[in-house]
Write a structure and sequence with these properties.
The chain is mostly helical. The chain contains 51 helices and 7 strands.
Length: about 1000
């Protein structure tokens, strides 16, 4: 190649190196750079215009201007798949400049890991899972069993609550390794989780720079998405939090932005539409290249259509000529085609003009060959061109229509399109040969990488392999569209299995190959898939398009049904999902993913026997699948089949002793069976294996709480909140622990935080309502219970608590309305029946009260609170023998409760039977312990707020029953000084009424006490 002429040996340089044209746009950008970020704030420039109009050249000029003022610049060349990809690209380029976003990179790595690990699970893979909504999954607390009033007996409401929690958690835990609710949010809503972290880290990283400028250049290869909506939300609406003030972003693409939004009229958005160059600008650019002859300039004007890329190409190919040079008038003589071709296709005319001046066939062939790959580095270049053209690589990449960054280059799309058409028409055989050679090269590079260890999850998880596979597909479609199309279509389900962005890349490759090879059947397929991806359920629409045709083979159809089932299940379309799972299994009975997914879908619709059958089939196919064993065990646990659950979990742990997820699952099963020590051992081991597993940490905290070890529970909850301050479940669990320990202010703070993090967490709202109720703030309690019931009308626990609050506030009709609804919804709920009975008793409806108490005790014979209530009702109606029998059963059930001994003693005195004084003395002993703060309840080692008032109230009533009036007066004074809640005062008044009814001689002594209590009640809010 010794004979290379100077135009191929030296870079193209205009005299003075100036940039011609676009002065107004450059001026607007430079003006933004001169402003103070504190006063200006972030700005978004939107550059748009047709192919070849100079968008990339303008952005390069802007980049140079930004660097001159020491701005940190990021240039993303080509469309990004999604907003996550945009953030990743920005972070990677800033890190190369010594400005790492370490916290963001950690969260991004976690997102990619979780997305990959969930490939066989509920969520699938890819950023498309961000569109999935899981009601209640994010931030919902995992509640423990609830307590009935008075004695703490467990009720069936706990089972209903656990089932609701299970439906939420199954979406996060089946078949995936999501360790916390924050992991669930990260997979389901990556933008909501990652963007605030990105902005926070960005603000810190670029604090010392005047500006950081992002350039997103979609180029002219695609009309695909630049992350415009995300950029707008970040810089204009502040949807993800306040962005750093020193951010400028420039987004360029073909498409004109949507009609101006309302917030754009006052927001920091600059619209820069680009048109073709003016005639004056073309003349200036020609002159800068030494082209001054009028006929030559006219040729440039006519052939280029005044598109900057074509103007640059033409003037680069024209030899400089003095202005006085007389050019021939014949258009053909000065290189201009005659006729309409020069108007209809300026790109082709320009390419022909450029190539016409190249006499060397090797160089001409290299220009044609390098248009074939969509992007090329030196390896691809050598695969594309003839061996003798290898030395031309550096020269070729400096041609005016070639752009590139980081060692990768491509033709401007306007020029490439024209070159491809020319190449295809002039030599169809060479076209097929060269595309085949390129396809074979990409295949060889892919196979060479595949010879190593396969990446976890399959070949589609390695981006290098993915890129080689995609380019191989593109070139085979160009070489022989009819023969290559079936294979390309077969790859689409696999691409979607990797994620929507990957499917979009494949569809765009189909569209481009069809256009480049003039194969409408191929481009139509790509266009149809891209249109389907605009559907609200893009995967379902795209897969339906494929399944409605006949392009897929049997394995491909099975996979398409499987993936469509997954998406329909995630969207809540369970019956359609099950139909797809059945189709997948029919096509491929050995596919474990389909059997597993069908099992999960059956769980979500409550068909547990069918779900078990699905997991049985998975285990038939793979008996040693530890995760499937754990999944089946979880269903057994939810059905209270603890022996079966234990057997499956034990087998799973034997197979995978170091699987923290399986150990944590067994811990949950042991917790549900009441084996708290065994459960704690499993959680301890799980946390040894994975100290960052917030699920296991919260589960261990809950187990400590259920076992009454509140200090240990609080230590774990504190750690969980420290690790993840946005973990609503940990905040709610800690609040519940504080509530049980009587630390109501601390409980309220935690529940407030939990509700702030997840306003739709009915469990946190209902528990906060309980705290308000315990503090006598009945209106606040009712507001929380109203919200909880509105969020979950089937939450009987919240409904019954609301009824109880109405009862404590003396609103018996409202209480009965809620109790009626609860009993109607679940006739087997002993707690609701007993609560309605107590309301009837307080309202003086004793027959209704007895009927409900009898029903409650039939459902739960050892419910001490219901027994005591029925005994009081019997005594109020003069049925002393029945009252005494109930009182003695209460003592047997709960011998440490002072009220059980009080009821027995009062009944004996009313019956004038011996032993009443001893019973009342035992009651006094226990009430005194309560008043001192050492009564039964949380082992916190400190007095429980409200317990002193409860104890003093009991002592007051007991001494009244003993006719110890001075002691009674002393304890009433102490009771009122203990700041009793409204409900406590009302209960003591009710006890005085019952005492007066049982001991008529006490009425006169009780009257002044009653007056003091009524005055105190009237003074309470």
């Amino acid at each position: 190649m010794a004979g290379l002429d100077p135009s191929w040996q030296e870079p193209l340089r205009w005299p003075g190196g100036g940039f011609v044209g676009r002065r107004e746009e450059i001026a607007a950008f430079e003006e933004a750079l001169r402003r103070s970020p504190e006063g200006a704030g972030p700005v978004l420039f939107r550059v748009h215009g047709p192919a070849g109009v100079g968008k990339t050249a303008l952005l390069r000029r802007m980049e140079s201007a930004a660097r001159r003022v020491r701005a940190a610049t990021v240039y993303v060349d080509g469309p990004v798949a999604d907003a996550v990809g945009a953030m990743a690209a920005v972070g990677a380029q800033l890190a190369q400049q010594g400005l790492p976003l370490k916290g963001f990179e950690e969260r991004l790595a976690a997102y990619r890991r979780l997305r990959h690990e969930s490939v066989a699970g509920v969520f699938g893979t890819g950023a498309d899972r961000a569109a999935v909504t899981v009601p209640g999954a994010v931030g919902a607390g995992l509640p423990g069993p609830r307590l009935t009033p008075g004695t703490g007996a467990f009720v069936r409401a706990a089972d209903a609550e656990q089932v609701v929690a299970w439906v939420d958690r199954v979406k996060a835990r089946f078949g995936s390794r999501l360790r916390s609710y924050e992991d669930v949010r990260l997979v389901l809503s990556p933008l909501q989780v990652l963007t605030p972290v990105f902005l926070e880290e960005l603000a810190e990283a670029v604090r010392g720079r005047p500006w950081t400028v992002w350039f997103f250049d979609a180029g002219d290869r695609h009309a695909g998405p630049v992350p415009g909506t995300w950029l707008h939300d970040v810089l204009v609406t502040g949807r993800y939090g306040r962005p750093p003030a020193n951010v400028l972003a420039v987004a360029a693409g073909r498409s004109r932005p949507d009609a101006q939004r309302r917030d754009d009229r006052t927001g920091p958005v600059v619209d820069l539409p680009l048109e073709v160059l003016t005639e004056a600008e073309v003349r200036e650019l020609s002159a800068a290249a030494g082209i001054t002859g009028e006929r030559a300039v006219e040729a440039v004007l006519e052939l280029s259509g005044r598109l900057p890329v074509l103007v640059s190409t033409l003037v680069a190919g024209c030899p400089a000529a003095p202005a006085t040079t007389d050019r021939p008038a014949d258009p053909a003589a000065d290189g201009r085609p005659s006729g309409p071709a020069r108007v209809a296709d300026p790109g082709r005319a320009t390419v022909e003009q450029f190539l016409a001046r190249e006499a060397d066939p090797v160089r001409r062939a290299a220009v044609l060959a390098c248009a074939l790959p969509r992007e090329w580095d030196e390896d691809v270049y050598r695969a594309a061109v003839a061996e003798e053209a290898a030395p031309l690589f550096d020269r070729l990449r400096r041609l005016p229509f070639v752009t590139g960054r980081a060692g990768r280059h491509r033709y401007h799309e306007v020029v490439r399109t024209a070159v491809l058409r020319l190449h295809r028409e002039q030599s169809p055989a060479l076209w097929r040969e060269q595309h085949t050679r390129l396809a074979d090269a990409f295949r060889q590079w892919r196979e060479r990488l595949e010879d190593g260890t396969a990446p976890d999850g399959g070949r589609w998880q390695d981006e290098r392999l993915l890129g080689h596979r995609l380019e191989e597909t593109y070139h085979r479609l160009c070489a022989d569209p009819r023969a290559a199309l079936p294979r390309a279509l077969r790859e689409l389900p696999d691409a979607y299995d990797h994620g929507t962005p990957t499917l979009r890349r494949w569809a765009e490759a189909l569209l481009q190959a069809g256009r480049d090879a003039d194969a409408p059947a191929v481009s139509d397929r790509g266009r149809q898939v891209l249109a389907a991806l605009e559907d609200p359920l893009p995967g379902v629409a795209a897969l339906t398009l494929l399944l409605d045709g006949d392009a897929l083979d049997t394995p491909g159809r099975a996979l398409a049904h499987l993936l469509r089932a997954r998406d329909r299940r995630n969207a809540g379309h369970y019956e359609q999902a099950l139909a797809d799972y059945r189709a997948a299994v029919a096509l491929d009975p050995e596919t474990r993913r389909a059997h597993h997914g069908r099992g999960v879908a059956h769980v979500l619709v409550g068909r547990y026997d069918d779900a078990l059958a699905g997991f049985d089939r998975v285990l038939d196919l793979a008996p040693d699948d530890a995760r499937a064993l754990a999944d089946r065990a979880e269903i057994h646990r939810q059905a209270h089949r603890y022996d079966e659950a234990s057997a499956d979990y034990d087998r799973a742990v034997d197979l995978a002793p170091d699987d923290a997820w399986i150990l944590a699952g067994r811990g949950q099963a042991r917790q549900a069976a009441g084996r708290h020590d065994d459960a704690l051992a499993d959680f301890d081991r799980a946390l040894e294996l994975d100290p960052g597993d917030l699920w296991s940490l919260a589960d261990r905290a809950e187990t400590h709480r259920l076992a009454g070890r509140h200090d240990d529970a609080l230590a774990d909850y504190d750690r969980a909140v420290e690790l993840d301050p946005r973990n609503a479940r940990a905040a709610a669990g800690r609040g519940e622990t504080h509530r049980l320990a009587g630390r109501y202010d601390a409980a309220l703070a935690d529940f407030d935080r939990a509700v702030e993090l997840d306003p739709h967490d009915a469990w946190a709202l209902a528990n906060r309502g309980q705290v308000h109720q315990a503090m006598g703030r009945y209106d606040a309690a009712l507001a929380d219970f109203d919200l909880a019931v509105e969020l979950d009308p089937y939450d009987l626990w919240a409904l019954v608590n609301r009824a109880e609050t109405h009862r404590l506030a003396g609103r018996y009709d409202d209480a009965l309305a809620d109790y009626d609804l609860a009993v109607e919804t679940d006739p087997y709920d002993a707690w609701a029946a007993a609560g309605r009975a107590e309301t009837h008793r307080l309202a003086g409806r004793y027959d209704d009260a007895l009927a409900d108490f009898d029903n409650a005790l039939e459902l739960d014979p050892d419910d001490a609170w219901a027994l005591a209530g029925r005994g009081r009702t019997h005594r109020a109606t003069g049925r002393y023998d029945a009252a005494l029998a109930d009182a003695r059963r209460v003592v047997a059930v709960d011998p440490d409760d002072g009220w059980s001994h009080y009821e027995e003693g009062l009944t004996l005195r009313a019956m004038a039977r011996p032993g009443w004084e001893q019973c009342l003395a035992r009651a006094v002993e226990r009430f005194a312990r309560d008043a001192a703060g050492a009564g039964p309840g949380p082992a916190t080692g400190e007095a429980v707020p409200g317990e002193a008032a409860t104890g003093e109230g009991g002592l007051f009533v007991a001494h009244c029953a003993l006719s110890s009036w001075e002691e009674a007066d002393r304890h009433l004074t102490r009771f009122l000084a203990a700041a009793p809640r409204r409900g406590q005062v009302g209960e003591v008044l009710a006890d005085l009424d019952a005492l007066a009814q049982a001991i008529a001689s006490a009425t006169e002594h009780l009257r002044p006490f009653r007056h003091r209590l009524e005055e105190a009640l009237a003074a309470l809010p």
